[in-house]
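ok so dumb question maybe but i'm new to this and my supervisor (M.) told me to 'just get the structure for VOC family protein' and walked off. so i did the thing. is this what she meant?? sequence i used:
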Amino acid sequence: MPTRDEAWPHGTPNWVDLAADDTAAAAKFYSELLGWRVDAPTDDAAGGYMIATKDDRPVAGIGPKPMPDMPSNWATYIAADSADATAKAIKAAGGTLHMDPFDVETGQGKHGRMFFATATDGSTFGVWEAANHIGANLYNEPGALSWNELHSRDLAKGKAFYSEVFGYEFDDMSGPEFTYLIFKRPGEEQGVGGMGTDAMLPEGVPSVWLTWFAVDSCDAAVAKVAELGGEVRMELGDSPFGRMAVVAGPQGEVFGVIGLSEAQGEMPG
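this is what came out, is it supposed to look like this??
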């Protein structure tokens, strides 16, 4: 079981959370779909924000929308050694901050330091500097975060921005009908996320980070999504990484499900 107890390295997607209209309904949906335990917050300072766990390890967050008119969505956070230094790098690269970096504290102490930003290609993401809370403690396991990828309206602009801010290097995994890049931390061989063009995005939807959760069976997960009031956005398909689909929850938030043990075909070079 892949677990982690230390802060994630700078530039690694390390946490995801859902902003929803009805957080109780969202907690019920994901508990039934992914086997999460989601307890109601006991600290008023949490502002209704709940931590979902699997096997007693944090896997994701669920909280109320900061603005009522925004769509329900899954946000990707990227680990930073220093939130303040990363904020400066984002502004220098042409990005914009939604707020200045701030500490997240509850009765249990300082969880971390964070902020949200928008990149030059229009994609929005969070930055998390770990303290007591490192982000995901369980990953690449059914019910846990498996992958984060950027679907960009301007991939060249997005690639340049994230490379300048986080120092990413890239492996080009593109094929005849699609463009897809694996991004890596500087000097490392293992990729930590992906970037692709906007082929999957409906008209009018800006560049967006997509969250993927691992499941035991992708077919069973897709059937469960429909049973619980969600819908399929990208049909089931096989790949060397696993059987996968893109779905939406009952409140409209989009995410991917992937059966890592159901991989088919040759892994790209």
